[in-house]
Design a protein that fits this description.
Elements (H helix, E strand, L loop, with lengths): L1 H26 L4 H16 L3 H12 L9 H16 L2 H15 L68 H12 L4 H4 L1 H25 L31 H7 L4 H15 L4 H10 L2 H7 L25 E7 L5 E4 L4 H11 L17 E4 L12 E4 L2 E9 L4 E7 L6 E7 L9 E4 L1 H6 L3
Antiparallel strand pairs: 1-2, 3-8, 4-5, 4-8, 5-6, 6-7
Helix pairs in contact: 1-2, 1-3, 1-4, 1-5, 1-8, 2-8, 3-8, 5-6, 10-11, 11-13
C-alpha cells in the first residue's frame, strides 16, 4: 500500500512541476492568446501561493489525458513520460532555458519534433475462486480451482547559440534527452507539442477556478459529508494490485479521497445512463464500476461476503461495503466471512439490476435459465461483454473480450481471499471442463421485467 501511495505522490509532484513549466512556456511563447493565458495562470498561482498548480497536478494525476477518450494504457504512457521529463532534468532545463531567455531578452523556446515508436501491451494473470467461497447458500460442494497463472541512443543534435553568443540550455542536454524520450514515447507530443502546451494552459486555468472553489468550501475545517471529486469510469484493469477494503467502509474511503458515496453513486448512475439503460453495455459499466474502477480510482477491492446481496435489492453502491460485521456470515462448512460485501450471484444480480433490469435475487444455479449455454472446453462460441460464465456454485461476468489473445476479462466476487475482482480467463475455461458460457443476448434484448 505504501508503494502505491508513494507512486501517487511521485506522480503528483512531477505533474505539478511539469504544469508549472507548461505555464511558463505558454507565458513566454510569444503567441498572443497562449502567452496571455500563461501570464494569467502565473499571476493566479502567485495569488494562491502555489495552490493552483497543486490542484492541477492532482487533476493531471487522476486524468493525465485531460478528459480525452483514451485507454488506460495510453494514460499510463503519458504519466510515465511526465515522470521521465521531470526526473531526467528536462523540465528543469526547459525552465532554466526560459529564465535565460528572459535575461537575454528572448521570448520563444523551440521544441524538437517527435518520432513514432512501438509500445508493449502487458499480460495479466488469471484465476478462479477457491473451494470454500461458495456463492449460494443453497450450493456448497465444489472443486478447488488453481490459478494459472532500451533501445539505441539517439544521435546528438547540433547546438544553437542565441544572438548574444550564450549557449541555449534546451539545445544541449535537454534536447538530447527530450529526443530520446520522444522516440520511446511518441504520445509525448500531446504534452510538449504546441497543442499540448495550449491545452495544458486552458485546463490549468480551469484548475485555478476549481482550486479557489475548493478552498472556499473547505475553509471552515473538515467536512463530514465528503468532497466533490468525481470518479472516472471505463477501466478494465485487473485488480490484483489493489488490496481488499477491510475494517473501513466504502463511504469512509471515498471521503478520505475528497469524494463521497453520494458523489460516487451519482457518477456511476451517469455512466450507466450514458451506456444506455437496459443494455448489456450498461450491465458491464455497472460491474466494472465496483471492481476495476474502484481499483483504478481509489486503489481498493471490495470484500466478498457469503450470502451478500440476497437480503434485498441494493440500488447502486452501498457505503457500508467493507465494514466489519458485528456477526460474521458463516457458510455451511463453517468458514467465516467478516466484512460486508457481495457474493458471486449477489454481484452479478446487482450489476444486471442496476443496469435497469428488474432482475430477481437469485443463486448461481439459476442463471443458466436466463440464456443459451455453451461448454467452454468443447465449443468455439465467442462470448460478448455482459455474457456470463457458470460452473456449479459460481457465476462470473465477462466484461472484456480479446479475440487475438483468446482471453476474456472477467469480473466476479471470487471469494474470501480475492474479494470482488477483475482478472482474465482463456476462451477454453481456464482449465475447468465444466465452465460454460451463458449467452445473455435474448434476456438483454427482451428487457425482461
Amino acid at each position: 500500500m505504501d508503494n502505491n501511495v508513494n507512486e501517487k505522490q511521485r506522480n503528483e509532484q512531477n505533474n505539478v512541476k511539469n504544469a508549472r513549466a507548461a505555464v511558463d512556456i505558454a507565458a513566454g511563447s510569444g503567441v498572443p492568446v497562449v502567452s496571455t493565458i500563461g501570464k494569467a495562470a502565473q499571476v493566479a498561482d502567485t495569488l494562491t501561493f502555489g495552490k493552483a498548480t497543486e490542484a492541477m497536478g492532482k487533476h493531471l494525476t487522476k486524468s493525465v489525458t485531460l478528459g480525452l477518450p483514451t485507454s488506460k494504457k495510453t494514460q499510463k504512457q503519458i504519466q510515465d513520460v511526465s515522470n521521465t521529463l521531470a526526473e531526467s532534468g528536462v523540465t528543469d532545463a526547459i525552465t532554466g532555458a526560459i529564465g535565460a531567455k528572459r535575461a537575454l531578452g528572448g521570448n520563444k523556446t523551440s521544441l524538437a519534433s517527435p518520432k513514432r515508436a512501438n509500445s508493449m501491451i502487458p499480460n495479466h494473470m488469471q484465476g478462479l475462486p477457491a473451494k470454500d467461497d461458495l456463492d449460494s447458500p443453497k450450493k456448497e460442494e465444489q472443486n478447488p480451482q488453481s490459478a494459472p497463472d532500451e533501445e539505441k541512443n539517439n544521435k546528438e543534435s547540433s547546438q544553437e547559440t542565441n544572438s548574444k553568443g550564450s549557449s541555449d540550455p534546451i539545445q544541449g542536454f535537454a534536447k538530447k534527452t527530450l529526443l530520446n524520450i520522444i522516440k520511446k514515447n511518441p504520445i509525448v507530443f500531446l504534452i510538449i507539442g504546441g497543442f499540448g502546451i495550449f491545452v495544458l494552459g486552458l485546463i490549468f486555468l480551469f484548475a485555478i477556478v476549481a482550486a479557489a472553489a475548493a478552498d472556499d468550501n473547505g475553509s471552515g475545517g473538515g467536512s463530514s459529508g465528503g468532497g466533490n471529486s468525481s470518479t472516472s469510469f471505463g477501466s478494465t484493469k485487473t485488480t490484483e494490485s489493489c488490496p481488499q477494503l477491510q475494517d473501513k467502509t466504502l463511504s469512509e474511503t471515498l471521503a478520505e479521497n475528497n469524494s463521497s458515496i453520494d458523489q460516487f453513486n451519482s457518477d456511476l448512475q451517469a455512466a450507466i445512463n450514458a451506456a444506455g439503460l437496459k443494455t448489456r453495455e450498461a450491465v458491464v459499466v455497472a460491474a466494472l464500476g465496483i471492481t476495476s474502477d474502484l481499483c483504478d480510482n481509489y486503489h481498493i477491492r471490495l470484500p466478498y461476503l457469503w450470502g451478500g446481496g440476497h437480503s434485498g435489492k441494493i440500488t447502486l453502491a452501498s457505503g457500508n461495503w467493507g465494514a466489519k460485521l458485528a456477526n460474521p456470515q458463516y457458510n455451511n462448512s463453517g468458514l467465516a466471512y467478516p466484512y460486508d460485501g457481495l457474493d458471486c450471484s449477489g454481484f452479478v444480480s446487482w450489476a444486471i439490476y442496476n443496469a435497469g433490469y428488474d432482475f430477481p435475487l437469485t443463486t448461481s444455479e439459476d442463471f443458466p435459465a436466463y440464456g443459451q449455454t455453451y461448454n467452454m472446453a468443447s465449443s468455439n462460441f465467442v462470448a460478448k461483454p455482459g455474457d456470463l460464465i457458470h460452473h456449479e456454485g459460481h457465476i462470473i461476468m465477462i466484461v472484456g473480450v480479446d479475440e487475438a489473445a483468446q482471453k476474456y476479462t472477467i469480473a466476479e466476487a471470487a471469494g474470501l481471499k480475492d474479494g470482488m475482482r477483475t482478472t482474465t480467463m482463456d476462451f477454453k475455461g481456464g482449465g475447468r471442463s465444466d465452465n460454460e458460457i451463458i449467452d445473455m443476448s435474448s434476456y438483454y434484448e427482451r428487457g425482461v421485467k
